[in-house]
Write a structure and sequence with these properties.
By secondary structure, this protein is an alpha/beta fold. 50% of the residues lie in helices and 7% in strands. Strands 1, 2, 3, 4, 5 and 6 form a six-stranded mixed sheet that branches. Helix 1 crosses helix 2, helix 8 crosses helix 17 and helix 8 crosses helix 20. It starts with a helix and ends in a 7-residue tail after the last helix. 35% of the residues are buried. Bound molecules: iron/sulfur cluster (SF4). The site of iron/sulfur cluster has 13 residues, from helix 19 and helix 21.
């Protein structure tokens, strides 16, 4: 433990972002016209606050001030999350918002019965005939627009307003704008290295409990769960000694993973003979085995399958995992890749051979696709490398006290090309960097650095940046160091 502390101290000595986290107390937290407009336009009006904001009242007569309109949600649930509102002179409240054309949308869309909508503190509607007895407070905006609807439709309908208005950007946007491009990149790089070590520490901790190989498998499975299903995937990985016992072929492993995961379809499609034929084969095996695994089968409700693209379906990810598991040389190939410059590319190591079913079917209920679909896309390779494989290799090198390999892995980590863009990164670019385009984020490390800043600072503050020390740290860095850590 003393050695780990010493490593942390020396890392912080060379990484100003790590010192910022220590100063802010973030490190301890690591331990644990006519008719209504289209709804999309109404959302854009709300997002850009094209309202006469000083005269907003709910239908029950209370003054409502919009301290922050919240962030447009891209994942189902309420339309905006994290809004901060003040009703009359009451203390500000944070919560979610639902935008509906009509006040009766609340019941008509089933929001009143949906637990995901319990956090809604305001329903924003185009117009409402009168008071409502049920649901959250209601704000009608038809009479509160700051310009004619036709003008707003022109402005908001295209790309004219892709960024948050200046007043809704984070407080750090101004000092970050003052930094030169090299300084911004250095800041993101140092934050990314903090992230690499954090993930490495997590994998090392698991390795202490269950060994390095199991730690890697758990990391890979969690990553295959994407953001929606890391926990059922983690559980399946924890059960690996059970379901790998005596299984030698890909189809045997697929059967057990899908069976224990409770992801085998209970019924055939009756219209897609190839999918039905494959499912029958899996069920034939599973009938014989299910009693042996009954005590560890996952409840189907553990999976979040709604809204998942077929290409990302957990059935498909488990099929990929089965291929990896049958390849007894996979772990050593990954290890060799970590220490050898001329080893095959990681995507080649991880891409399984063509699969008799999965190369032409996205899920167990999909029709045969005309084009082959590899089980592993290039974007997923980046996720696996940045979140699991490079941190795991780094942790092993740290345990083996091999600074040269650690440095080589950090170099790979920092130079890895950028992964897929996503809504979290887009929102952060708008909030922190004033809508900076994607071109500035050419490496996956710059994306990881931005995610680390969100985690360290934005996640500990609110939409109006209360008590966030990041802006002052950036300003101090600019002044002192014209400076400190400046490349
Ligand atoms: S919470 Fe902090 S880091 Fe996040 S946008 Fe606001 S000032 Fe920036």
């Amino acid at each position: 433990m003393r050695r780990a502390k010493a490593i942390r101290v020396s890392f912080a000595a060379n990484n100003f972002y790590a010192r910022w986290r220590q100063q802010c107390g973030i490190v301890p937290a690591l331990h644990e016209g006519d008719g209504p407009p289209p709804e999309r336009l109404l959302q854009a009006i709300w997002q850009q606050q094209r309202l006469r904001r000083d005269r907003l009242r709910t239908l029950d007569g209370r003054v409502v001030r919009i301290l922050h309109p919240g962030f447009l949600s891209v994942e189902g649930g309420p339309d905006f999350c994290g809004a901060v509102l003040q009703f009359d002179d009451e203390p500000p409240v944070s919560g979610d918002l639902e935008v509906d054309l009509h006040v009766n949308g609340w019941k008509a869309h089933g929001h009143d019965r949906n637990p995901n909508f319990r956090t809604v503190i305001l329903q924003v509607v185009w117009s409402a005939p009168g008071k409502t007895a049920e649901g959250p407070p209601v704000l009608s905006v038809a009479e509160a627009l700051d310009a004619p609807l036709s003008e707003l439709a022109e402005w908001l309908g295209g790309d004219a307003a892709p960024t948050l208005p200046e007043e809704f950007r984070g407080r750090c946007a101004a000092p970050l704008r003052e930094l030169g491009e090299e300084q911004v990149q250095e800041l993101l790089r140092q934050a990314a290295l903090v992230r690499l070590r954090g993930k490495a520490a997590q994998l090392a901790a698991r390795a202490r409990e269950s060994g390095w190989e199991q730690s890697l498998w758990e990391g890979l499975f969690r990553a295959l769960g994407y953001k929606h299903n890391p926990w059922p995937m983690q559980r399946l990985a924890e059960l690996r000694p059970r379901w790998t016992y005596g299984a030698k072929t890909t189809v045997e492993l697929q059967t057990r993973l899908l069976g224990i995961g409770n992801l085998l379809p209970p019924e055939l499609t009756r219209s897609r003979p190839e999918a039905d034929g494959f499912v029958r084969r899996l069920w034939d095996r599973w009938w014989r085995e299910q009693n042996a695994f009954g005590d560890c089968q996952l409840p189907r409700s553990l999976w979040r399958l709604h809204g998942i693209r077929p290409i990302n379906h957990p059935q498909r990810r488990l099929a990929l995992a089965a291929h990896w598991l049958v390849d007894r040389k996979l772990i050593s190939a990954i290890e060799r890749w970590g220490v050898t410059e001329d080893a095959p590319r990681l995507s080649k190591i991880l891409q399984p051979p063509q699969d008799e079913f999965w190369t032409t079917h996205l899920t167990l209920r999909s029709a045969k696709s005309a084009r082959p679909q590899p089980l592993l896309g290039e974007a997923r390779v980046t996720d696996l490398a940045m979140n699991v494989i490079l941190p795991w290799l780094w942790a092993r090198a740290a345990e083996g006290r091999n600074p040269a390999i650690q440095a080589a892995i950090e170099k790979r980590y920092c130079e890895w090309p950028a992964g897929e863009d996503n809504s979290v990164l887009k929102r952060a670019r708008q909030r922190l960097l004033g809508g900076t385009g994607i071109k500035r984020f050419r490496t996956a490390a710059s994306q990881q650095g931005l995610l680390q800043i969100i985690r360290d600072f934005c996640d500990h503050s609110n939409a109006v940046c209360d008590h966030c020390r990041f802006p002052e740290l950036v300003r101090g860095w600019q002044v002192d160091g014209q400076a400190e850590g400046k490349p």
